Each structure stands twice: as C-alpha cells, then as structure tokens.
Amino acid sequence: MRILSIDTSCDETAAAVTDGLKIISNVVWSQASLHAKFGGVHPSLAQREHEKRIDFVIENALKKAFPKPPYTIYDILSTKVDGIAVTTGPGLAIALGVGINKAKELAKKYNKSLIPVNHVEAHLLSALAQATKKQKNKKTTFDYLKIKQNNYQEMFPAIGIVASGGTSQVILINNIGDCLILATTIDDALGEALDKGARALGFGYPGGAVLEKIAREGTVNTSVFPVPMLGRENLLRFSYSGLKTALVRKIAELEKTGQLKKSVIQDIAASYQETAFNHFIRITERAIKQTTVNNKLKTVLVGGGVGANVMFRKKLHELAKRNNLNILFPYSKKLYTDNAGMVGVAAYLKLENLKTEKQKGGFSVFSIKHLDKIDRRPDWRI
Ligand code: KG4
Asked: What is the pTM of this model?
C-alpha cells in the first residue's frame, strides 16, 4: 500500500511516500535556522513557512518516489498513491492546520482516503520502518532481529521510548494501537531540556546536537547538578525544570567569579547532559521493572530527535542489555527527528490493525465524504 504522508506539526515541513513499511522518499524542509533567533519555535512564523513550502515539499517527495518516466503530479496522485496520511496532533495548532488543509484538498481532488496520525505514535513506530532495496547498506529492525518482513508482532510486548523536543514518554506497546503510557514528564521534555541548557550556555536552537558536540570535549562530574526526582522514581515522572534552574544558577555563579572559560563550559555541558540522560534512564528502567508484563517484554523501540545522540544511545543499549531486551532504533538518522516517513509507516500499521483499533473506537480512516471530521488535535495523547 502506497501512502503520501504529510507532517507540519512543528518547524519541519515534511512529506514522504511509503510502501507498507518501506520508505520510498522522505523530504524534510527544516525551518530551524529561522526560529533560532527566538530561541524556540515561533508559531506564526512556522505556519507562514509551512504555507510557503508545502507544495514544493510534497511535489519533491512524489517525484523522488516515482522518478521515471517523468510523471506529472496528477498521474502520481491519481494512479500510484492509495491513500494520504497526515499528522493531526500533537503539535502547534496553526502549523498542524497547514498540513491538514493540504491533505484534505488532495484527498478531495484525487478521491483518496485520509488517515489521521498521531505524531508521537509515529515516532514510537519509526524503528519499524524498513529501507528499500536501493538503500543497500541500511540494516533495519527486521534484519537485526532476523524476523520476517511484516512479522512485527513478534517484537511485542515492547517498551517504546519517545525522546524529542516535545515529548518524553515511556510507553508499553502491547500491539499496534494498544499502548499504555508508563512514564511521562511533568515539565520539559528531554530534548527541550537540552535545548534550554544549550541556550543558557550561549548556544543556538535547536541545542541538543550542539550540546552533544561540546559535551564530548568536557569531563563529567555528576555531583555538579542535583539528580531530578531522587527517591521519587516510583512515580515514573521525568522532571527537568530543577536541573535547568541549577544550570542557570551555576552559570551566573561562574560568570560572577570570572571562571566561565571554554573548558569550564565544556565540563558543565558534559555534566548537564549526563545528569539529564541518567535521569531519563533511571526512570525508564524503573518503568520497565514496574510493568505487570515485565517478564514478557521482548524489545525496546526508540524514536525521537534525542535518539540521534551517541551517548544517549549507548546508555539505552546498556539499559536493554541489563534487562535482557533487544533494542531497536530507526535505520537512518533522518528518521529520529521530525519527518513524514514515520507518519506513513504509522498510518500503514494502523490500517493493518484496524480491526483491533475499531473495537477500541480510537481510530478511523476517513473517506472523502467525512473529511470535515478531521481536525487539528494539538494536545492529542496516544
Ligand atoms: O523529534 P524532533 O525533531 O522534534 C519533536 O518532535 O519534538 O526532536 C527535536 C529534538 C530537539 O530538542 C533537539 O535538540 C534534539 O531533538 N536533538 C538532539 C540531537 N539531535 C536532535 N538531542 C541530543 N543530541 C542530538 N544529537
């Protein structure tokens, strides 16, 4: 099944074409540099930029997926694509609206079903995406587990981890569409905490990747920052606001005494990142141990932008090993951060499992007669 998928939930205008679990094309136009001067995403600027780029990004995704012979967009959408998927939440309402309106317009024009997708669920399932034959060197989840294509049920029950700029969640995945949030944040998401930390240290937005680079040069001292939620791990809550405040105070103190030189900044960055990751791992491990299905768990699936961090992945690998679980990451770096390929994969998986979903009443595919039922869901929780 071929799906054109669209995501405009934050500051990336993204479109992709997927065929089942395979990602055929995946085009992302990032606005991050435009938002840098605001130190975060400016919603109306995001909306404007999505409107400017969306047609170009969609055309690009379609043409990359079907390069020969030179088809028109009309040909591709009429004859090559079976359905359209769009992120309807969570995200910035006015940004989501751009993708949703475009998806509705195309669904109407080309008489396609429209599949609304939850952005967090798309991150959650991104490790199940498979490379096409053309992407020869890419090993996918299925290769690592030596299981047959589409036998993804063999991985469940799984622990899903979504660590991005907007989400820090540990989710029990019993099966597609049968999820239970085990741990979540009470304030900032992990990526947001890294972004704010980088900003406090004088670096730009988004800061996670910059902080990673600087932290690599520094020496970790875990006694510099307080451990969040110490002694309250059983609540299964992430919290980063105290850590961020401690960082701001530390910087002010060092500035006052004239000690804020390059090597000190590197050490501070390394210790801040380490404390943020250790907190994430500690709560995740507690969530794994506390689940009622602990002895049945098979895999850990990781998604979201922070997964691109080498140190974070190392800590997750160690966590999985300690708990005797397989761990799987998306096959390409591009699939960690926001993209529409993961949206197409999630839409396909939802469609395949529609029966179960329907019983739960949580999901529908909308024919063009019912397009007005699809709306933005900025606070949609899976
Ligand atoms: O998944 P994503 O694109 O956005 C959301 O859906 O929120 O993730 C973006 C987040 C940002 O907070 C960014 O700083 C973080 O992922 N990030 C990283 C790295 N690359 C991106 N954090 C740590 N290390 C990285 N290499």
From this structure: 0.93
